[in-house]
Design brief:
mainly alpha, Multidrug-efflux Transporter Regulator, Chain: A, Domain 2, 2 domains, 6 helices
């Protein structure tokens, strides 16, 4: 009985992953290279589907590619202790907790700014006043982690030209 093989298009549809992303994962070594048909078409087996599902789920949980690479190496050696996997997951949890703390501080700042607005004219608007002078804020740091001051957030940037 022959093993069922998928073309890259069928693998993409089966996993909800874009063809370009699958190629990228192959290029950076997260996915093993596919077999090639006589016509040089990529052919993937069930092991590729499982690995891609692992990568996708890891990405959904916010793991960076380097952590996923390390986790995949561990998954490929099932008899090893899982200390490293636990450490990687704990690091991701710490990242999430830091982000939650920042978001809660941001929420508190926005709620305070809105509550202090008297609803009069823009000349006396607390929202405008706080946005114009960071000294009125409760917290010093509203930046996203890793984004240098003065660099626009992705949502602030103009969309790329089509």
């Amino acid at each position: 009985m022959t093993e069922r093989k998928f073309t890259i298009g069928r693998l993409a549809r089966a996993t909800g992953c874009k063809v370009q992303t699958i190629r990228y994962y192959e290029q950076i070594g997260l996915m093993p290279p596919a077999e090639r048909s006589a016509g040089n078409q990529r052919l993937y087996g069930p092991e590729h589907v499982q690995r891609l599902a692992f990568i996708r789920h890891s990405r959904d949980l916010g793991f960076p590619l380097d952590a996923i690479r390390a986790l995949l190496r561990l998954a490929d050696q099932p008899d090893q202790p899982c200390e490293v996997a636990d450490r990687i997951a704990c690091q991701r949890l710490a990242d999430v907790e830091r982000r939650i703390a920042r978001l809660l501080a941001l929420k508190q700042e926005l709620e305070r700014m809105i509550a202090e607005c008297r609803g009069g004219r823009v000349a006396e608007c607390r929202v405008i006043e706080v946005l114009a002078d960071h000294g009125h804020c409760l917290f010093d740091d509203h930046l996203e982690p890793g984004r240098p001051e003065g660099v626009a957030a992705p949502s602030d940037r103009a969309p790329a030209a089509s």
